[in-house]
Fold each of these.
Amino acid sequence: MSRRRVVFKLVSTLVHSPYRWRMLATLLLSLLILGIELWIGIQLASFLGRIVDTLTQRDAAGFRTALLGLSGSIASFFVCISAYVYFSSHLQMQARTALTYPWLRDWLDGEAVYRLEREQQIDNPDQRIAEDLKLFVTHSLGLLMGAANAFGGVFAYSTQLWSQGGELGFEFAGRIWTISGYLFWIALIYSIVDFVLTRRIAQPQIGLNMQQQHFEADFRFGMAQVREHAEQVALYRGAGTEFRRLTACFEKVRQNWWRLIAYQLGLNVYRSAISNVSTFLIFLLLGPRVLAGVLTVGAMTTLQSLYGQTLSKLNWFAVSWTDIVAWLAVVNRLAEFDRAVNATPRGGIEVDPPRGPVLMLRGLSLTLPNGTALSTIGDITIETGQRWLVRGPSGVGKSTLLRAIAGLWPHGRGRIQPPQARVLFLPQKSYLPWDTLKVALAYPHSAESLDDDACRLALEDCRLPRLVSRLHESDRWSMRLSLGEQQRMAFARALLHKPDFLFLDEATSALDLDTERHLYQLLCERLPQTVLVSVAHRTTLDPFHTHALELGSDHPARTQPVEAAL
């Protein structure tokens, strides 16, 4: 998706947001405040000129009157600035909220979050929502309000500059030439030259800004990864390795920052020089008229202020080019994110709409994303009351089969018709949100959907008695509980949710045989109508299943009945 299309999508999201009327009211109020600021700026220039004239004329009464007017204008100006900062900040949060919710939904809906991680199409998608959307709103509103202020200021200040600046007369080719509003034309030409030079100097910053955001995001993600796996790092004595890895990430941040700052330094030096030249130019133009008695010192002061304000408004593009560069870099990252989220998954497995309480696989074969074959499944129908055990050597696609059934793996051929039923997947390491224990048990449903006593009973039954009293305690459970405890938590979740189809992917790999047998016994007794599909290597699970599916890389999958003990 191009920059133009993603900007259109972002603006369209704002226009159709539930917050649109509040945002519009806040925007109009902010623009009104900017208009008042421009009017006050003209008054400041006028009062400043009067003060200078009264001083040169030694007019004490006039000086006091002009000083009082200047003080009132300055006070009003500060009030306007404070009000503008408040309302513009309020508008930024409204706009960020309006964008964040739908972009979060796009990321989480349709398993895009898993697909992006699986295919590694873009880096740090989470930070593109958290950081880049914020930067887009900040830069966009800053540029929008700056442009409005600039165009309004050009009209307001140039009108005064044109009317008060007079004409420039000179002789050329035997004729007397006059240029009306010459100060405005000089300011316009000056600003155009300034913009062209600024753009040429700042152009390389677009790519460098984008790289800087990429490297900063990688550095933050690396540190977050270490924090998330602190125990494993400590057990491996990997602090030194992580230090080298993180410093390598930071070195990219530092090197790119030096390149970026070098261009920024050149731009700042140029901006300082161009500003001083502008000050020199106004004295060069107006000084002779003051010395000739055509202008008073106060009038020159007023014209100098009006010229400076007009030039600053005309120079908005040049002065804001660094912000424009940063905005373009943010838009590029958001365009990459949007393109990746909305990309059509590549693969040949077709998933049909659910029909009835039956899982059907037709002509199914699994491959890696690069086309390398994993296994051939063929035709299988799994019906209510059956319990299937999926076996085979490592690397033949046992876990991948469950991902395909869940609609998360498109690589391969064939058709899958998932059941029209309540489905629950228990991976080897189940997700436990950072919240109360009850929220973790109820996930992905709300905690209110479960009864406290039922939760306590499930924990007891799954041999987690020490957690019974901590049902409403918030913690990082994935860090506090061992892998075996987390797997028992997953079984408690299954008992509470009572799914029609339960898929278990090495869900008891960290448990001893007695606990494994106890938990499967619970599933068979408490959920007798639930279809179980277990991926496992242990033969100790055979008694709890009625069918076996043997996968292999060198032969089609084989099915056979299992003599269940229950």
Amino acid sequence: MKKCWKKLCQYFAGDPSISPFKLTLFQSTGATVLASILAVIAYNTVGVYYAGIWYQLGVTLVIASFVAPIFLFPSYRTSGRLQRANAIIKAQATTDHLTGLPNMLALNNQLKNLLTDDKNQTAFALHFLDIDRFKQVNDSLGHDVGNELIIETGRRIQDWVGNAGFVARFGGDEFVVIQFATSNELAATHFGRELRVHLAKRYNLSDHEINVTASIGTALSPFHGTNQEQLLKAADLALYKAKETGHASCVFEPRFASEASNRRRIEGILRDTIEKGTLIPYFHSIVQAKNPLQIAGFEALCRIELPDGEILNPEQFIPIAESTGLILDIGAHMLQQACIECASWHPDLFVSVNVSPVQMIRSDFLTTVQEALNDSGLPPYRLELEITESVLINDVEHIRTTLERVRALGVQIALDDFGAGYCGLHYLRQIEIDKIKIDKSIIDDAATVEISRNILNGVSLIAKQMEITLVAEGVDDITKAEFLSKGERVHQFQGYLFSKPVNAVNARRMQEILPSQATGSNVIQLPVKSNDRA
């Protein structure tokens, strides 16, 4: 009874989901029946007293009821057009305008249907995919070619997946693929691998031949989520991990969520710290190899102290700062503070500041350096900028031009972590370097491993011929220091044997130590208060 009443109400209300023909027929019939009933009632009640008038009125109502469909016909036509228009709007609302694939709304509807269908066991894989280095295509070939690449990528995905899944464009260069009836991680991984191979085939777009690869993050239902939000988040986290680690694809693991939460926490801390200007500069001493009691300068290191006393080290927040662009503000602030602090030291001391690849590429770095020098009054020759070999593999021409202009100011350039994984010798031919800092991994093995010792000796010979200062990083015991001192392999030492990174107050106190005050052999004994954190 309730269903019948509900259906009648839909007809009377003109529900657009009902066929226009059925709706008009019902309304016309209803109007006819209602008019006839009213005519009969009116005649039987008062028509006996006013037979002439009510007879005419009754006849008029009956005739009007039969004529009503004629007047309702335009409504029928309008309703039909409205229904077709609604169908078009619905299609447009669920279709991506560029690729013609289903969009996010259609994806959410599909996931909702899969997860709420009682007949379905919600066993499927959700693949989150994006094109690697897509921004480079846009920047080098233009957005039109970038759009063509997105269209062709969507077509290839749809052609390869076929009826085995559901394909949607999530946005930008990101796509989502639902792999039906898959609860096995191995099968999902194989599916993603084969899809990547299919997408890696050469693209011919607007007279350009393009080779691209894709990264994929995978989540399995119901193991990694029971609703669309959880599954999409899990697949997105897996994609982030795949790109972060350099792997082609990755399946979600629960730890990814806690890592993401920690990243958000650290990002919030960074933004708050930058806003309040509470970044803490620490300083790590660099000493002369011939006389380790003589400090040559300090390397400035960024530290962030939390309210509970915890100190965040650079390896915890620098990658996050670089990925979010916050490194630009952090780097500029650290450079400013390091120059101001060094200006108060002995005039023979220098300060060394690390430079991120992001700073070199995404900012007016030369202006940043000039402002730091001008505001602090520090002579340029007392500032040393440390770049890693990874800086040089991004855009050598741009980096070389920037560094040449910085060196023209009188600033020294140091190549940090030399030997940590890139072919640094290649870049020594292209960029003028004043100092090389040999990575700790080479220093640790130089005394005992022949290949490391040969590398050290070779770099030492090259540095001597090119008149480049050589620094040994990670010198943390006397054995290493004594070995490195033989044959004058290096010019300067840096490591925990001489001191740990200290705050500005203790850095000034270290400069006041005289050789006669030092105890032990060639080791500086730093008087650090118990409440100072190194």
Amino acid sequence: MTTLPAPRTYLPLAQSPLLTGQTNRADAELAIRLAHQALPDPATIRSLLSVRTPEAADQITAALEARTDLPPAALALLVAHRPASKPATSRLKNLLFPGTAAGCHTFARTMAQLAHRPETIDHLFLASPRFAEAAATVNPQALNDLLAPLLAAPVLTGPADAALGALIQARSAAQIPASDLDQAAVRARERTRRNRIGTELAARREETIAALAQHTGGLTLAATLWFGALAEAADTPQNAGRALAVALLAPRTLAADAVPDCPWPAVQARWQQLRAAARAASRHPQVWSPAWQKAATTADGSTWDPSQRALIAGYDLLAEHVRTHYTADTPTPERCWASDPAGRALLHTIADHLTGHLGHSPLPHFDDALLITFVQAHAKNSRHKIPGALHIHGLIAALKAARSKAALLTLTQTPDVGIVIPMRSETGRLAPASPDNPDGLDALAAKTAQLAWLLETRPDARAHLLLIDEAFDSASAQAAAELTGSHPRISITIAHRAAVTSSKGGAVLWGLNQLHAAGHTTLAYTDLDLTYPLDQLGLHLEALTHSGAGAAIGSRRRPDSHGYYPPAGPTPATLLYTQAANELLSLHVTDPQAGFKAFTRTALAAALPQVTDHRLSFDTDLLGALQHTGNHVIEVGIAALHRYVDGQVGTPRDYDTMLAAVHQQAVRHGLDPSNRATPIWDRIREAGSLTAAAAPEPLSISITPPTR
């Protein structure tokens, strides 16, 4: 039987036990031989010089002194560790003062110590005339090469910083033109001061944010963003010092609702957001703290993760609200969480805390699909009998609203949004619910409240609601005009535009043109009902910052969407319509007919002239034009405030007529059937209708009688 030798491990020479551990006689002899013959890289030289046995150390020094192949860095190492070595010091002096018999051995020794052992420098020598004279006559390039690793260090030690300062001062006093050495030394010292103060500033981050959160009801997102802007402004030693002073005074400044004394626009803008967050938090219902305390542990005594704990606190608050307010009547989600001011305020309170409460938020750690799954699983495990699953709708809508506000706060561009809302016979929906108007939603008040909550912590943000009444009697416009309130960052315009040939599409397209002419940077449209909450508009605005994005669709059909369709999803005919529209217009979207879309100003300017469809199929015409003009269409999952009821029919839609219109749109936007196959469209056309094409194929079953 053959025994294989044990595998051998090879270490770099500098890590050899001969050089890193306590050496015995044999090891010392080997180290001496290495001093004569090993490659003179700095790591090996440093390890050889670490041998402390006196006899071996002397012989290693002598061997290294005798070598003529030591590079400047290795030679400086030898001088720094063996300052009494006259041969090595003389050779280093000759490198620093080439071509002259002048120079200073002590200066050369000091520079070697500065490069490798600054703690051993004689600081009395730094103040001497000999040092000043040598500093003025040294070859700056040779010294720059010698000190290069030190000059690139993020932070200099105290002795190194002081020695570099003495060197720069001596050369400046001699009125020598600044060299690469001088400039690098100045940068290294400035970097050191900035980083030291920056380190102190960073060390105060959590303490400062926590102190600021005492004035924002525990909300920390705006404080975190402000502190991040402050840290970015600390780019010089002077700015770093000023930033630290601002951070120290920030809690007191916020408590006084004042403005910090600093010149940085980004910091000032974030501070205004922080002040707005503090004012907004003061209006929250005082319900979060007890819910947060109650959600500390599970029923069996386990501890929730802080991110999960925020979700549980929100879940408990919403469930209790439904139990308390809706014992007999079960409202729709839009009435409970949008139309009802109390429910809407509670949802927004929870959303604000989900953006960051005491530094904890689930948003940075989990995507919305996973968070929705968690909410649904918790509801299932809790076995709570909540009417209409209203608490689930509310919590998922709060999650989306939180994600939306977090996205809005992080936008670098000032939000300026124009939103079109078409109306036709909406007087009942515009008014609040009453015995005479049971279906009233107070829709305009609810929409402006949602938008106001979203914008409240962006004092620079602006929004314009354009409501367009297409009915000849203008009743909706008159009703809306009577209900219009005053909002600091929202302007409302009500227009009457009676049109015979238009069916929603004409109003939307006309409104988008009007808002584009008004100069808004982002244009959007949605419906007057409360299915699509405007407090989720930040999701669209963030999506439009992606490269090439021209449109953002609030989709009801993504994995991270919720609330519109039954668990089985859309009907086969609806899905087939979507597939056909994508095929004809070269789109890749799940919900082309969603009534919640936003566009960039540039993309819309290119697309609008190509849109001619004013019917219910105008959505796809607009998306096709955007695609045709080279703009990407992005989808974001939204939480619709809608409870699906079997058999319930919304706006009547003839999808076969709409699909025929989509085909006409595709031809106008460049579809050439001879160049691009359209098998789905062909299948629908051959079947005669969407319903027929979506019907499952009948199974052919043959029964073979048994043989006898």
Amino acid sequence: MTPNVHLCLVLHNHQPIGNFDGVFEQSYQDSYLPFLDVFEPYEALQISLHTSGPLMMWLAERHPEYLDRLRLLVEAGRVEIVGGPQYEPILTMLPGRDRIGQIRTYSQWIQRNLGVTPAGMWTPERVWESSLTTDVVDAGMRYTVLDDYHFQAAGMKAEDLTSYYLVEDQGRLLRIFPGSEKLRYTIPFRPVNETVDFLRDVAHRHPGAVMTFGDDGEKFGTWPDTKQHVYEGGWLRSFFDALTENQDWLHTVSMAEAIRRVPAAGKTYLPDCSYREMTEWALPVEAQETLEDVTHALEKSSEWPRLQEFVRGGFWRNFKTKYEETNEMYSRMMHVSTRLAAAEAAGMDGVALAEIRDHLYRGQCNCPYWHGAFGGIYLPHLRNAIFEHLIQADTLLQDLEGTLETVTATAEDYDFDGQQEIKMSNEHLIAWLDPARGGRLYELDIRGINHNLLATLQRRPEAYHRKVLAGPGCGDGDVASIHDRVVFKQENLDQLVQYDQFPRKSLVDHFFDNEATLASVMSGESLERGDFVDLPFEAKLRRGGDRVQTHMRRDGNAWGIPITLTKAVTIDANSDKLSVTYLLENLPPGQPLHFAIEWNFAGMPSGADDRYFSDVDGNRLGQLGDAVDINDTRGISLSDRWLKLDVDLRCDRESNIWAFPIQTVSQSEAGFELVHQSVCVMPHWIITADADGRWAVQIEVTTRVESDCEVPTNQAIAGSIV
């Protein structure tokens, strides 16, 4: 009898919440549709197909004919529909109730629309922790696919990974298929015969083995250069031809069919893990660079094959410490999830809760919560989409609770850092303050447009910045994996790599040398002479009538000079203004000091004539991607005509204003690119104390949306001395 092997082809097609419609459509035309066109005639082949909820729902709306074809393939036993959490969250990031809810919700959607209830699921980004087993099984799943890397991290040898295994938690059993890294890198990047020869060798060494390929469907047409290679160059047809020609020993089957044919190889317990590259990306930058250096050095050693399985990366949850912005989204999501659970326990209206739950689930989509070879957290439109749904869920919850029109202020450890943050809200605004971190305003939500004006990003070192400085290039072969490509989407990126000492938030208080200039502040060369930016402020909440106020005070210093800085943030009921008081005391008489208040505004991109700065008289000063330096003025405006949004900053005294873009040099699947993150607006003064050693300023920031827009108009954020 000829030795045989079973091959499970598990494709994962995904587009995240908030991605551009054109990207969905282009991926459909480049990947999803042509793959189906090529696959359909090969009647002897089976595949397992996972399509994430956001993408599947888009397909149902825009290309229902695609779902019709899937139904026919499902009925013919050619395609197994793989389930999973509806909006593709990292499951370890969620409370158990949301893990189970997301999986069950998507299974129900698939049943309604494709007529089948999935028994297996895709684990997003293959991020795994043992405790997931119980929730996954309780949600109705019997099996999933991870990577062989997970199993090797448990001490298993690569040659042992020729079938699926059982894992157990609290008495629940789950079958897990180890996806082959070898197959991930040969399909579709290497000649077809390399994959066939590899599988033939496995068949001879392990007759009846089950080998699994589990990876992104976008690598068949959407990833750079793959459309020409996979379709125009005929790679996929050649691959399916080879599978068909060798079907007497190479059985291409779904995961469900493999389970029917072959028993589990045994039981194991897998450690907290993801695919190899993800574990590397999760490390702090210095550790990531060290791991890269050590790996490259050891690869030259004859001992590397024995040592490789012991060289490992980090833990996915540490993205929440690597990127403060990830933790901001995560803690915002947890706040909504906890309140939703309480509303459900209180028996509130089920229809309203279902809508809120959908917004919560959408706000859990994983892509902007991490960063690696893909844009991830560096993509503003993905971050904005997360906040959009979480803010909408928050507003709907407060409306359901009957508290939306009430002005409130509460202090809790909202971001899980051991310190209390302050949430102030009314029916128009939600302001989140962090007294322990310089009294900064770290989130400002405009309910009417479901937008966080502070969905900003700090520029920080990345391990791949070494490649930026080394220059463009490509991996071996005609078509390189995303993980191997070095492509520059703009010129001179090496000159644009820059890092921020502090997060790009608002109400950030700076003292600079009097000679500081726009250029020196933009480049980060101007030294911080005070200790107010990131050190704790004392905070008190004050409530009275229809007003709440957060009063923050710090006895600090600048240039060694003791200075008391006070800022009070006030919200009135039924008001669209956030009022801020700034008062400096104990200033030295007759000594001029350079003081600046940093604001950052996210969500208004650069690079177009309809996105611009203007002065108080309405004269345009340049695009939002330009640097602006104006003196002796009372304010500046930022306009985005596409969004129909204007943001006006006004001061109650003559001021100098610097404004400039914050841009990152970051990595995406298409290469290294410059991404506009936010606009910094920094009023600054050479201040001189009055006779009492005091100085004060009022700032008002107003956002206005044009009346023909679908969102409410006359939204405002203001600052004033109280």
